[in-house]
């Protein structure tokens, strides 16, 4: 199947302000890149890439990936989560690792997209964001003094299956997705200005990317409580399915969009 791309970099006055912001080097030559500088560039980029973000709200891969995160979290509450995971198409051996789980998530999302749509850059970003979120939050707890395996992995994921735990997982997922989304546009601009602005070299570019990731993760705080409350309430009242998950993703993305726009207006 063909791969649906986000499209070319927007050629508009708004995008030109992104280029100018990167080129001007808000942190000053040799002075590093400040969080205020990154925040300004990120919000300007979001403005320029608004059409891409609108497409993200209804993207099949993004919606299904988030739904899959809810189901993995709920499966971890079972005495043995593997039968429930198998119903999702995820098969883990007794010695399964964190890598095995994230690989299975990638495969299941790919299979769903192939059956219900076509691959997009957005769906790839969502898959990567889910793997990064699981690795960051469950990874440190999936390895014990007794080694690692499906049981240890389940225990680590179970900590993310509560209201508070899923709030953390949701924030991490949306934060990583937004980082990748903004970098889709930003990476081409920052690469052009390495050595000619505040991005004096590869180390500066690395710091820029790290600061951008922190900025997006902090911005995703706006959906932290929202994720936990929705997850707990919906599972109790009706159960979580792909349809209500997709509605939730749309609202969460709008919240993120509004949060970054608000930050830009306050600068």
Provide a short characterization of the protein structure:
This protein has one domain.
Mean pLDDT: 83
Helix and strand sequence: HHHHHHHHHHHH
Helix share bin: over 70%
Largest sheet at a glance?
A: none
Contiguous runs where pLDDT drops below 50 for at least 5 residues: 27-31
Q: How would the global form be characterised? A: globular
Number of helices: 12
Strand segment count: 0
Total count of domains: 1
Distance between the termini: 43 Å
CA radius of gyration is 19 Å
What percentage of the residues does DSSP assign to strands (E)?
under 5%
Structural class: mainly alpha
Describe it.
- With 267 residues, the protein is an all-alpha fold.
- The chain has one domain.
- It has 12 helices and no strands.
- Helix 4 packs across helix 6.
- The longest helix is centred in the middle third of the chain and has 31 residues, at 163-193.
- The termini are far apart.
- 43% of the residues are buried.
- Mean pLDDT is 83; it is low at 27-31.
């Amino acid at each position: 199947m063909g791969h649906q791309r986000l499209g070319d970099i927007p050629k508009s006055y708004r995008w030109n302000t992104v280029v100018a912001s990167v080129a001007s080097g808000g942190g000053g030559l040799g002075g590093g890149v400040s969080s205020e500088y990154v925040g300004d560039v990120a919000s300007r980029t979001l403005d320029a890439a608004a059409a891409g973000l609108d497409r993200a709200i209804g993207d099949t891969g993004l919606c299904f990936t988030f739904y899959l995160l809810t189901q993995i979290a709920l499966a971890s509450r079972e005495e043995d989560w593997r039968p429930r995971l198998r119903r999702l198409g995820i098969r883990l051996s007794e010695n399964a690792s964190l890598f095995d789980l994230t690989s299975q998530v990638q495969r299941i999302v790919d299979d769903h997209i192939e059956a219900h749509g076509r691959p997009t850059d957005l769906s790839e970003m969502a898959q990567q964001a889910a793997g990064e979120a699981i690795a960051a939050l469950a990874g440190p707890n999936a390895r014990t003094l007794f080694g690692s395996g499906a049981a240890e992995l389940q225990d680590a994921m179970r900590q993310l299956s509560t209201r508070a735990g899923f709030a953390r997982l949701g924030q991490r997922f949306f934060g990583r997705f937004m980082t990748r989304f903004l970098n889709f546009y930003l990476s081409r601009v920052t690469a052009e200005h390495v050595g000619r602005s505040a991005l004096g070299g590869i180390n500066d570019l690395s710091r820029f990317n790290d600061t951008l990731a922190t900025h997006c993760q902090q911005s995703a705080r706006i959906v932290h409580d929202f994720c936990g409350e929705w997850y707990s309430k919906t599972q109790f009242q009706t159960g979580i399915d792909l349809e209500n998950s997709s509605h939730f993703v749309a609202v969460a993305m709008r919240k993120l969009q509004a949060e970054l726009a608000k930050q830009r207006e306050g600068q």
